[in-house]
TrEMBL record:
Residues 93-123 have a biased composition (Gly residues). This is Root cap. Residues 124-140 have a biased composition (Basic and acidic residues). Residues 1-21 form the signal peptide. It holds the Pfam family Root_cap. Transmembrane segments: none annotated. Keywords: Signal. The keyword Signal applies. The keyword Signal applies. Residues 61-83 have a biased composition (Low complexity). InterPro entries: Root_cap (IPR009646). Residues 32-147 are annotated as: Disordered.
Length: 449
C-alpha cells in the first residue's frame, strides 16, 4: 500500500514537471525558446503589458510573450541572450531591434545608452524606422516650400517646413505677384515665409541703408539694436564685420585723405564671407567713369570669378557641405542678393561717389576714380549670443551701444579689436571663427582689391 502511494506521488510530481515545461514552452516561441525567462519577457510588466514594449511594435510587438510573435524580435538566436531583463524595457531606438544581431548580445540591447532613446520604436506602426532626422545645419524653414503652378498670375508655394505652416499653400499678395519680378528696380518681390509666421509679404530686394544690419556710405552702420554709428577704419585696411562660431565676414576699405584732414574718408569696396572651408567674395571693380548700365560687380567663389547670368532665373548657385549658396541678380546690373542657407542673406548694390556728393563732402576725389563701393544690408539666421565684429557685436543679447547719441556722426571705435591682416584672415583680437583644418585652397585669394 505504501509503495502504491509513493508511485502516485512520483507520477503526480512527474505530471507537474511536464506541465511546467509545457507552460515555459508556450511562453517562448517555436523558434526562440530562450526568449522568456519568467522575469523580463513574460512578467506582464515590461514585455507583455502593451505599455512599454507593446507600444513599440504596433500589432506584432505587443504580443511578445504569447509564443506567436516573439520570434520576430530577434530570430530566436540572440533574443534569449538579453541579459537579466533590467534593460529590456529600454528597447526603443528602432535601429537594431529585429536583425537578430544587435538585439540580444547584451551590448547594444542592454546598455541603456544606444537602445533607449525611443526615437522610432514607439509609434505602433513604424517599428523599424528612426524618428525623422533633424534638418541639416544649413536648413531654413522659412523658404522650405515647393513651387506650385501660378494661379491667375500669382505665384504660390506648398510649405514643407515642420512648423504650424506645414502643408499649407501660400499665395503671393496682389501688390507683388512674383517672387523675382523682372523690373526689380521699381517693383517689390513676393516673399513666402513657411516658418511659424506662415505669411506672404512684399519686400524690396535692395539694400535698405536705413534698415537694421545695413552698411552704407562712408561707412555708416545701423546695428542689430537699431542704433546708427560710423566706423572709419583705415584706407587699405581690413576689418571683421561679423565673426561667429560658424562664419566670418571681413570688409576691405578703400579711401582717401584730403589735405588738411587728420583721418581717411573710407568706403567698403569688398566683402569676404568665410564659412566651413569656403570663401565667397563680392567686390566693386575700380571704375574711372561710372555708367549705371555697365556691371561693375565682381563675384568670386573660392578664388575663382563666377558669372551671374542676366537672363532666366538670373542666378548662380552651388551646394556644398549641406549648405546652398545662391547669388541672384536683383537688377540688370550692379545689384545682387546673396544667400548662404542657415547663415545669412545679404542685399548688395554697387554705387559710385557722384560729383555732387564729392563736392558736398569735400572728398577731393581724383578725376580718374569714381570710388565704386558696396551698399549692403545683412540678415542673419543663427547668430550665437557671443557674436563679435564691428556689426556683429550689436546683435548680442543685452548689448548696450557705447556710441554717443545726438551727435552728427556717432563714432564706434574698435579698429584695434577687429583689424585683420588681410581680407581673408580670420585672426583678430576678438575674432571667434576658426577655419577647419582642411581649408579650401588659398590660390586666387591672395590678391587684395
Amino acid at each position: 500500500m505504501a509503495g502504491r502511494k509513493w508511485s502516485i506521488l512520483v507520477a503526480f510530481f512527474i505530471f507537474l514537471i511536464v506541465l511546467e515545461a509545457a507552460i515555459v514552452h508556450g511562453q517562448g516561441n517555436t523558434k526562440g525558446n530562450y526568449s522568456a525567462n519568467g522575469k523580463d519577457q513574460g512578467n506582464g510588466k515590461d514585455q507583455g503589458n502593451g505599455k512599454d514594449i507593446g507600444n513599440q511594435g504596433g500589432k506584432d510587438q505587443g504580443n511578445q510573450g504569447n509564443g506567436k510573435d516573439q520570434g520576430n524580435q530577434g530570430n530566436g538566436k540572440d533574443q534569449g541572450n538579453q541579459d537579466n531583463g533590467k534593460d529590456q524595457d529600454y528597447q526603443g531606438n528602432g535601429k537594431g531591434i529585429g536583425n537578430g544581431k544587435d538585439n540580444g548580445n547584451g551590448k547594444d540591447q542592454g546598455n541603456g545608452k544606444n537602445n533607449g532613446n525611443g526615437k522610432g520604436q514607439g509609434n505602433g506602426k513604424d517599428k523599424g524606422k528612426e524618428k525623422e532626422k533633424k534638418p541639416y545645419h544649413g536648413y531654413d524653414e522659412s523658404s522650405d516650400y515647393e513651387e506650385l503652378t501660378p494661379q491667375s498670375g500669382y505665384e504660390r508655394g506648398l510649405c514643407r517646413a515642420n512648423s504650424s505652416c506645414h502643408f499649407k499653400t501660400l499665395r503671393c499678395p496682389n501688390e507683388c505677384p512674383e517672387r523675382k519680378p523682372k523690373k526689380n528696380k521699381k517693383q517689390k518681390a513676393c516673399f513666402l515665409d513657411c516658418s511659424s509666421k506662415c505669411e506672404s509679404t512684399c519686400k524690396v530686394r535692395k539694400a535698405n541703408c536705413d534698415g537694421y544690419g545695413s552698411l552704407c556710405y562712408d561707412p555708416r552702420f545701423v546695428g542689430g539694436d537699431g542704433v546708427i554709428f560710423y566706423f572709419h577704419g583705415a584706407k587699405g585696411g581690413n576689418f571683421a564685420i561679423v565673426s561667429d562660431d560658424e562664419f566670418q565676414i571681413n570688409a576691405h576699405f578703400i579711401g582717401t585723405r584730403p589735405q588738411g584732414r587728420t583721418r581717411d574718408y573710407t568706403w567698403v569696396q569688398a566683402l569676404a564671407v568665410m564659412f566651413d572651408t569656403h570663401t565667397l567674395d563680392i567686390a566693386a571693380k575700380r571704375v574711372s567713369q561710372w555708367d549705371d548700365n555697365v556691371d561693375s560687380l565682381l563675384v568670386k567663389w573660392n578664388g575663382k570669378a563666377i558669372n551671374i547670368p542676366s537672363d532666366g532665373d538670373a542666378e548662380w548657385r552651388v551646394n556644398v557641405d549641406d549648405r546652398e549658396v545662391v547669388v541672384e541678380r536683383t537688377d540688370d546690373a550692379n545689384s545682387v542678393r546673396v544667400t548662404v542657407s542657415g547663415l545669412l542673406e545679404m542685399d548688395i548694390r554697387v554705387r559710385p561717389i557722384g560729383e555732387k556728393e564729392n563736392k558736398a563732402h569735400n572728398y577731393q576725389l581724383p578725376a580718374d576714380d569714381s570710388f565704386a563701393h558696396l551698399e549692403t544690408q545683412f540678415r542673419f539666421k543663427n547668430l550665437s549670443d557671443s557674436v563679435e565684429g564691428v556689426l556683429g557685436q550689436t546683435y548680442r543679447p543685452g548689448y548696450v551701444s557705447p556710441v554717443k547719441r545726438g551727435v552728427a556722426m556717432p563714432m564706434m571705435g574698435g579698429e584695434d579689436k577687429y583689424h585683420t591682416m588681410s581680407l581673408y584672415s580670420t585672426s583678430c583680437n576678438l575674432c571667434k571663427f576658426k577655419r577647419p583644418s582642411a581649408v579650401a585652397s588659398s590660390k586666387g585669394l591672395i590678391a587684395q582689391y
